[in-house]
Amino acid sequence: MVNVSDDLIVREFGICDYSEIWQEMKDFTRDRTPPTQDELWILQHNPVFTLGSNGKVENILDAGNIPVVNIDRGGQVTYHGPGQLVIYLLLNLHRRKLGVRKLVSIIEASIVKLLENYQINAHSDPKAPGVYVGEKKVAALGLRVSRGCTTHGLSLNVDMDLQPFTRINPCGFENLEVIQCKDLGIKSTLNQLANELVGILQQQLSQKT
Question: In sequence order, which residues have a C-beta less than 8 Å from that of residue 94 and are 6 or more positions away?
């Protein structure tokens, strides 16, 4: 499904192979021109560990049969799998007059707002990008900027198998626990949460300041 707003195209992809959608992101960014509309891509991934450009392989404790993909975003290692909401933000930062730090704040604040709507008290951490409930991480983010345009984005744990997170040091932190929306008592489906979060992101991005 494709939804077009004034300045954003929102695409829904379903469950995707990581390497294939990563290549599509790179192709989109390489081929885009100044008038190209920004896009948000909503999807889930088949099980995969991704290791950021500065990631340390020792943070992968036991990959087992889950593939490990070395990628070009910032950050360390994380896990993606079915039941986790992934939103990739393909944005022209120059046109939106946004810096990377401001975009990170917008993404984190949008997730915090989404959870606040369900009476969940969540927060960000300036020392460790992402969104947390107490000491447990519910959402991760990682970005790459090329020619002033972003790829990659955020992942929100909704209703998934969390066991693979025990096989890594999530985002490079030993003993970091993760949590998901289901365990927080949120009964909305992944698609419902995706629509709500996209709406919040669109609103936040339109403010620009």
Answer: 148
User: Counting Cβ atoms within 10 Å, is residue 4 exposed (0-12), middle (13-18) or buried (19+)?
Assistant: exposed
* Among 139, 136, 131, 36, CA closest to 91: 36
200: part of which helix (H) or strand (E)? helix 190-207
119-149: pLDDT as tens digits: 999 999 988 899 999 999 999 999 999 989 9
| Class of 2-207 in CATH | alpha beta
CA-wise closest residue to 151 among 43, 40, 35: 40
- Least Cα distance to 141 among 78, 62, 53 occurs for 78
Backbone CA torsion sign across 84, 8, 153, 50? positive
171 counts as catalytic: yes
Q: What is the pLDDT of residues 152-207, one digit of tens each?
A: 999 999 999 999 999 999 988 888 999 999 999 999 999 999 999 999 999 999 87
Listed by start position, the domains of the chain span 2-207
**Token pair 């993404």 in the structure block, residue:** 107
